[in-house]
């Protein structure tokens, strides 16, 4: 298993991954892996531009998207690293958002992705990162805690309670 950027996955693997999530009826997480009705080629360009202040969309912070792929190139999960925090991300999104495809859950992939992402953050010079999850998402809370996350507060957004964690990298 390894983390790769968007340009390291195939069109087929991407659409298979997205179709499984959409068929489950669950929200796509991180939601940024789909962006409106962009094609695969447009998404590749979008994600390249999204990773820098000079070219990211106005109102957004630079972010890098990675996928956890197996030896066959099948996508098992996705994780997004947001390079900065804005007001919204300080309360409800954090530096890191992730999701695992429904058929691959409860196999430790979220913990593995987060461990790899924390190493990337450390290599980029971060000392700590903020990660949030819905209060009732026990699996995500355990993933964060298993990677050293310390819950420091909660917040409410659109009637939903969020846990906020700082993780030293």
Alpha-carbon Rg, integer: 15 Å
Strand content: 25-35%
Question: What is the terminal separation in angstroms?
Answer: 21 Å
Mean pLDDT: 90
Helical proportion, percent range: 25-40%
Q: Helix/strand-derived class?
A: alpha+beta
Q: Give the ordered list of helices and strands.
A: EHHEEHEHEHEE
Shape: globular
Weakly predicted, low-confidence segments = none
Major sheet size, sense and barrel closure: 4 strands, antiparallel
Tally of helical runs: 5
What does this structure look like?
It is a single chain. With 169 residues, the chain is α+β, with helices and mostly antiparallel strands. The protein is built from five helices and seven strands; from the N terminus they run E-H-H-E-E-H-E-H-E-H-E-E. A four-stranded antiparallel beta sheet has the order 1-2-3-4, sandwiched between helices. Strands 5-7-6 form a three-stranded antiparallel beta sheet. A hairpin with a 2-residue loop joins strand 6 (150-157) and strand 7. The chain is globular and about 40 Å long. The two termini are 21 Å apart. 30% of the residues are buried. The mean pLDDT is 90.
